[in-house]
Amino acid sequence: MSTPDPRQVFVVIPAYNEHASIHSVTQELLKHGYRLVIVDDGSKPSLAPVLNDLPVIYARHRVNLGQGAALQTGIEIALANEASFVVTFDADGQHEAGDIADAINLLVENQLDVVLGSRFLENPAKDMSAGRKRVLKMARYINFIFTGILLTDAHNGFRCMTAEAAGKITLKQNGMSHATEFLSIIRKQKLRYAEMPVSVYYTDYSKAKGQRSWHGFRILFDLLLSKFFK
Amino acid sequence: MNGIQVILISGVLLIFFYYTFRLRSAILDLLVLAICSGLGIFFILFPSYTNDIAHKLGVGRGADLLFYICILLFLFVVMKLFARIRRLERKLTEVIRNDAKKEMQVKD
Questions:
Q1: CATH of domain A6-228
Q2: Are residues B1 and B29 in the same domain?
Q3: Nearest CB partner across the interface for A174, out of B93, B101, B106
Q4: Is the pLDDT higher at A44 or at A201?
Q5: Domain span at residue B93?
Q6: Span A114-169, pLDDT tens digits
Q7: Number of folded domains that form chain B
Q8: Chain A environment of B106 (Cβ under 8 Å)
Q9: ipTM of this model?
Q10: Does B40 lie in the same domain as B6?
């Protein structure tokens, strides 16, 4: 089968204060020939100087809006540049650039709309704490209650979708509850989706930078509010 | 007139005049505010009427009835404000997003 031109693959990276990791993550992705949309979500100081020497599309939110908002901005930019595939990717270096090609193959071969990365489908995530596992397990079921979709992994930043599917996605939840909102949209728009095992590296950096487990409650609260206040 | 009545009535009047002169807005708002203030002053001057209403509704004291109504009003206001904050947030997001798109640097 024909693999799509990597120049048509747009990787959207929402980044908030990821000064330490963004450069290496970007370089790694550029090796594969993808086009990158980096959305600086109001980092202080700006991420622009760090990325100055790299061929990427760089957009900056003047103030911090949240990951959901940054993703939405990035997806819109990718589509405006005639992307065929849109990938979302975390800025902290926990995803593996090599997984993108597999995800796109899966997408094309099975004529899917969306491929969602999972940490638990095959090889369990490396160095994940027991507490985090428990929280994610709970989050699965919360997602199920809100969206009717039960995944093996609830909050994975790795997603890959066709341009057509990306065009149907409008994330209105600016914060972290966008992961659940994403599933609701999949469900509402009747998008064909599959999960794919992806490697996730929990480095000391990503652990320090990532979300605390109690942020889960914040997400749940946001979700409940969004149900009441459309 | 006893002390608490003086305090409450001057408070109500203060809010009423502040609203009319500083934040003056639609006539309807003003009318509603005037009626509420009038009722407020009336019940402050003749608190026994609140007791009568409370008894009719099965509440022991007028003050308790007022308290319950206040809780409801408070929740209502919180919800209204929350909905407004969300709307504002949405607009802000749109503005910031448009700015980000306008000023993006394309170097690839």
A1: 3.90.550.10
A2: yes
A3: B93
A4: A44
A5: 62-102
A6: 999 888 776 655 667 777 777 777 778 888 877 778 888 877 889 999 999 999 99
A7: 2
A8: 57
A9: 0.80
A10: yes
3-class secondary structure, A60: strand
Q: Name, of A110-114, A135-139, B1-5, the range with top average pLDDT.
A: A110-114
**Token pair 């594969």 in the structure block, residue:** A32
Average pLDDT over residues B51-76: 92
Does residue B55 fall inside a structural domain? Answer: no
Question: Edge-to-edge strands of the sheet including A57-60?
Answer: A193-197, A114-118, A159-162, A85-88, A9-15, A35-40, A57-60, B105-106
Mutate to test the interface with B, among A58, A174, A221, A222 (most CBs of B within 10 A): A58
Which residue blocks in chain B are alpha helix, DSSP H? 3-22, 27-45, 48-57, 62-102
Domain edges within chain A = 6-228
- Residues contacting B19, CB < 8 A, separation 6+: B30, B33
CB distance A61–B97 less than 8 Å? yes
